[in-house]
Amino acid sequence: MKYIAPRVFKESFTCPHCGVLSKQDWDSRDEYFRQFDDVKNIIRIGHCQNCQKYTLWINDKMFYPEIGVSPFPNPEMPESVKKLYLEAASISTKSPRGASALLRLAIQILCKELGEEGKNINNDIKNLVSKGLPLIVQQSLDIVRVTGNDAVHPGQIDTDNIGVVSKLFELINIIIEYMIALPKQVSGLYSSLPQEKLDGIKKRDK
């Protein structure tokens, strides 16, 4: 299912609580806040029709829950990468630049999980390409790498743009899908073939 990033007053988006693309109800004048004239017009409360849970916004930024503009991490994401991914998600609406830098670090850790040294992310990607890394994954890795670099050393990419950062989260999940989830799935299906068929394939490949 397509991921739609949460946005204030949007009729529907992917709920950060249940992960379902669902309709949202909005109330910017909740009973509790009506007593505070100076805040009642900047507090927005979204209500998911699927899980019945709430999102809390101040102006156009979501402050609860702290998953921000990120989709749920791919289930096959290594824990070392997932830890950084969720940390980046928790600050993505408050500090898109900080989230970008953390996602770059997550890519560096991911390269190490894939068998590279994890010291120089550019060299790691180069080595992965030499091992047959698909072009779409190489491009995704470099997008996150370059954008994360600009977050630390400002260049031409607007890493304060929350829309830019939300795409980085999607790319991380795409990379995990191509490099870990799909190979694992295909390997499981392949190994389930009858032994005589597997022997025939090995004989053919020789």
Structural class, from helix and strand content? alpha+beta
Mean pLDDT across residues: 82
Estimated share of beta-strand residues: 5-15%
Rg over alpha carbons: 21 Å
What does the largest sheet look like? Answer: 5 strands, antiparallel
Overall geometry: flat
Task: Extract low-pLDDT stretches.
Answer: none
- Helix % is 40-55%
Q: Count of helical segments?
A: 6
Strand arrangement within the widest β-sheet reads 1-2-3-4-5
Strands, count: 5
Order of helices and strands: EEEEEHHHHHH
Terminal Cα span: 41 Å
Task: Describe the structure using short key phrases.
flat, 5-stranded antiparallel β-sheet, single chain, 206 residues, alpha+beta
What's the quick description here?
This protein has 206 residues and is α+β, with helices and mostly antiparallel strands.
Task: Characterise this structure.
The protein has 206 residues and is of the alpha+beta class. The chain contains six helices and five strands; from the N terminus they run βββββαααααα. β1 (12-14) and β2 form a beta hairpin. The longest helix is centred in the C-terminal third of the chain and has 30 residues, at 162-191. The chain is flat and about 70 Å long. The mean pLDDT is 82.
Describe the SSE topology:
Elements: E1 12-14, E2 21-27, E3 43-48, E4 54-58, E5 61-64, H1 79-91, H2 96-113, H3 121-130, H4 135-152, H5 162-191, H6 195-205
Antiparallel strand pairs: 1-2, 2-3, 3-4, 4-5
